[in-house]
Amino acid sequence: MMGIVRKDKGGNEMKKTSVIVVGAVAAVGVAGISFGKKIKTLYQSLNSFKDKNLAHTFQHTPEIQPTKKISRGEQVFSFAKEADITLADGFTYQNAFYPCEKFMEDTETSAMIVVKDDVIKYEKYFFGGGEGTLFSSNSMGKSFVSALFGIAVAKGDVGSVEDPLGKYIPEFVGTELEKIPIRACLKMASGINFDEEKDMSGFSMRTLLGFPAMKVISKYGVQEPPYTYRRYLSINTEILGQVIVNATGYSLAEYMEKNLWKRIGTAHDAYWTLSNGKELAMGGLSVSLRDYARFARLYLNLGSYNGEQIIEEKWIRDSLDISEDYSKPGSNYDAYNAIGYGYQWWVPEGDQGEFMAIGVYGQWIYVNPSNRVIIVKTSADPDFMEKGYELKHVEFFRAVADGIS
Predict the structure, then answer these.
(1) Is the pLDDT score of 16 beyond 70?
(2) Distance between CA atoms of 196 and 193, rounded to whole angstroms?
(3) Which of 2, 17, 73, 119 is 20 to 30 A from residue 267's alpha carbon, by CA?
């Protein structure tokens, strides 16, 4: 999950609790294990989300939680590598100056890579990580689900993003959710009556107890027509994941392995966290730093890899379209919407075509097409909900990108 600016500490703590519960549910939601073992695993998972343990947790998720392997292909795309550049001195945000190196330290950066024109200009790891370390995506995983959805549409597995949810999800038939267009979920504008902070813990606990996720979601109803407002709801991505599964007959990990991961030159296997035996679509990937950059490179190149169109160019462009009022930065005069939103991608205000994948505790993929720059920054930052956190990072990334010769 990923939340934009939250002013009050209470909301911050509630948001953290929701994230922890989701992780705990993933850890214990395995059919067939004893109740006692579930409680023990729940305790271990909750402990892993303590601030002091975050760095370790986000580098060892497949050891802590049940996951499904996503195998890499045989051919690896290798970035060229140069000596690490010196980062820009700093950046300015709201009339305050922030030195880049100090900013990285203050935000508990666990790894960062900067790639320009397929050349690694900067790559550093902290907290014991390295090139082979798999870093938790948290909600950066939503952007991967969007990519898989684009592939499913192109292959004809899913007819259209304008199709109603009820066409693919039987649990929604006869409910208020039946006629919501798929596209509304992609844009986080479904109108489903769900609150990311207040309702996530309850949703997670119900699924932990064995209730099917789509059955639980079907009970929420709607609070406004689709496309009225943009409300960041992780259950939208869970719905998208289930549409892919139902339409293709593959699990998300299987579909990703076959149609994406083996086709873009990744160097490492990835892993997808499971909840009750199913992939957690809302944000459960573990991926190496350079492989995150390889995924970003696919989008930078408009879906093409080695002359093959992995994702249709139109899907890429549609994914980054924030022309509708509810998609624009600052929509609804809501601090949560300070950055624009496309198909599960964040699009900041500006004229350089930038876009980002963002996850809680400071996980970032930043792509700047104008400068041909990719930046991936993973973190273990318990202060990720502080005011201006996302917009401050945008200025940091811009300063780094502009400082590369």
Answers:
(1) no
(2) 10
(3) 2
**Does the pLDDT value for residue 250 go beyond 60?**
yes
d(CA 332, CA 4): 13
Tell me what percent of the residues of the chain surpass a pLDDT of 90. Answer: 80
Residue 27's pLDDT band, with cuts at 50, 70 and 90, is low
pLDDT digits (tens, 9 = 90+) for 124-143: 999 999 999 999 999 999 99
Residue 121 has pLDDT above 70, yes or no: yes
Radius of gyration of the chain (CA): 20
Backbone angles phi and psi of 81, in degrees to 5: -135, 130
Model confidence at 25: pLDDT above 80: no
Buried b vs exposed e over 96-110: b needs ≥16 C-beta within 10 Å?
A: eebebeebbeebbbb
- Residue entry with tokens 């550049």: 85
In one letter, which amino acid is 233? Answer: L
Which residue has tokens 């964040």?
346
Q: What is the mean pLDDT of residues 337-342?
A: 94
> Cα dist. 188→146, 163, 172, 197, 227 in Å?
12, 16, 18, 15, 8
pTM over 0.85: yes
Quote the CA–CA distance of 23 and 204 in Å, as a whole number.
9
Phi-psi region of 285 (alpha: psi -120 to 50; beta: other; left: phi over 0): beta
